[in-house]
Known about the structure:
The chain is mainly alpha-helical.
Amino acid sequence: xxQRRGQAQPTKIRKTxxxxxxxxxxxxxxxxxxxxxSLALAQQLxxxxxxxxxxxxxxxxxxxxxxxxxxxxxxxxELKSTVEATExxxxxxxxxxxxxxxxxxxxxxxxxxxxxKLLGIAKRQRAANEELHRTTERAQIAGMTQxxxxxxxxRTIVRTLLPTSD
Length: 166
């Protein structure tokens, strides 16, 4: 009978590196002259492992430092452009505000000039009205004096024309 078998799959070999918590020296059981050689090999392995870790840390910190410097540079550039834009807007505001204040001051100066003109006209008009009032008052007094004299003359004529009843 034929047996069905699938294709043989290649076995995967895992490469394992000694983990940091693996105690290499404790796993070795040797006695005698091999102890010195094993100890030297273990120390060499530990030293290379330590060196590799230090290199990895150095590389990590170097990359982290460059990324941090890049991020800080970008943030500083953004902050600088924001400050420049704010200063530009503020300076425009200050210039516009100053121009408006100048315009307002010019308008107030015009109003003051017109007020001075109106005060002069009002003084002249008042003086003219007072003079007209005095002239009118004198004319009225003169007219009343004439009316009074006319009344006296009329009485005198009426008395002369009317017989007296005495």
